[in-house]
Design goal:
six-stranded antiparallel β-barrel; 358 residues; 3 helices; Elongation Factor Tu (Ef-tu), domain 3; single chain; OB fold (Dihydrolipoamide Acetyltransferase, E2P); conserved putative lor/sdh protein from methanococcus maripaludis s2 fold; alpha+beta
């Protein structure tokens, strides 16, 4: 009986030792420190862009011919009418060209009169055989040449008279002077900007928007534009133009927003604030380093608190220059891993580093 009890004790002791060895062979995954961030919703109306009211249409007016500026009747801020004289260059050389062309017309007309009379005499003499056919042909050719000379001289006179009109600078539309590029006494080249005239009836808001703007910019996106000094005065508009590249220094893009029937207080140069109009849907963004791409989709690692483990979750994103915008699969307030996503395992214990964003 004693021997049987000893055998039973030995069997249980052996089983206990075997179980202990198996537990000793189990290797637990180490607790890994990770960088993470909490995904907070961002609404499109939370960020505003500041800009100014500018004309949609403006023209840099300059003379078509070389000359010295002798008069400029307008300055910045002046209202001008269509066809109003804005500036004048010295017309002396152009007037002399007109006189020379007028004299050339008179000379060619006199030659035409003489050639026509000679041709008529030759025609009269050919009837009585007092001249030859060759002489008559020469007279006809001289009359045709003189007639062509008259046409050329008249064309040169018309050109000289038109160029004389270039001595005066006139706008093709009514507007407001926004800039001047030359002073009296300065010699201006053809095409050089002397006066810039803008149409105040068609205005737009010009703003510079950075990469942190919560909404993807596209033509036609609606905006609410308000005066910075009085936000109660506002109007609606849509994006008309987006700069294809960001500024090399500020890293912002210039955006032009067409204003719909802006009030009179939206004067040119006024400072305005632009925010995205319409439904204010929350936008969730995650860093590009947090997205794990596989053949069957895109995923992120979620930190499960307070357990301190990670789990893989499938999401749908739209990538742009700002990172990744989550369209499906992620709730606001979730903590996601932002570094080391390729070496994590499902259910692994992690430790949030102190430098992680709250």
């Amino acid at each position: 009986m004693m021997k049987r009890r000893i055998m039973v004790v030995l069997v249980f002791a052996s089983a206990a030792i075997t179980a202990g060895c198996k537990e000793a062979n189990v290797v637990r995954e180490p607790v890994r420190p990770v960088l993470s961030t909490v995904v907070e919703p961002m609404r499109s109306g939370d960020i505003a862009a500041v800009g100014t009211v500018q004309p949609q249409f403006k023209a840099d007016l300059g003379f078509r011919v070389l000359g010295r500026l002798i008069a400029r009747q307008v300055n910045v801020g002046d209202l001008v009418k269509k066809g109003q004289i804005l500036a004048v260059i010295d017309p002396t050389a152009l007037e002399l060209a007109v006189r020379s062309a007028t004299a050339e017309v008179s000379r060619s007309q006199a030659q035409l009169t003489n050639a026509s009379a000679t041709e008529e005499r030759q025609r009269t003499l050919i009837v009585t055989d007092a001249t030859t056919k060759a002489t008559l042909d020469s007279a006809e050719q001289a009359r045709a040449s003189a007639q062509a000379s008259v046409a050329r001289a008249q064309a040169n006179l018309a050109k000289a008279q038109e160029q004389l009109g270039y001595a005066q600078l006139k706008p093709d539309f009514a507007g407001i002077v926004t800039a001047v590029g030359a002073e009296v006494g300065q010699v201006v080249s053809p095409g050089q900007s002397v006066v810039t005239v803008a149409r105040p009836d068609v205005r737009e808001a010009v703003v510079d928007i950075g990469a942190d703007f919560p909404v993807t910019l596209q033509v036609g996106l609606p905006f609410t534009v308000s005066l910075q000094l009085d936000p109660s005065i506002r109007t609606e508009g849509q994006i008309r133009e987006i700069a294809p590249q960001a500024d090399a220094v500020t890293r912002t893009r210039r955006v032009r927003i067409t204003l719909n029937d802006p009030p009179e207080t939206f004067r040119l140069g006024t400072t305005v604030t632009a925010t995205v109009a319409g439904d204010q849907h929350p936008i969730l963004r995650v860093p590009a380093s947090a997205v794990l791409s596989k053949d069957d989709g895109t995923f992120i690692w979620i930190v499960n608190l307070p357990a301190g483990t990670v789990s893989l979750r499938r999401i749908e994103i739209v990538s742009d220059e700002k990172g990744a915008r989550v369209t499906k699969g992620l709730d606001p307030g979730a903590r996601v891993v932002t570094a080391g996503i390729h070496s994590l395992k499902e259910g692994q214990q992690v430790r949030i580093e102190q430098g992680a964003r709250p």
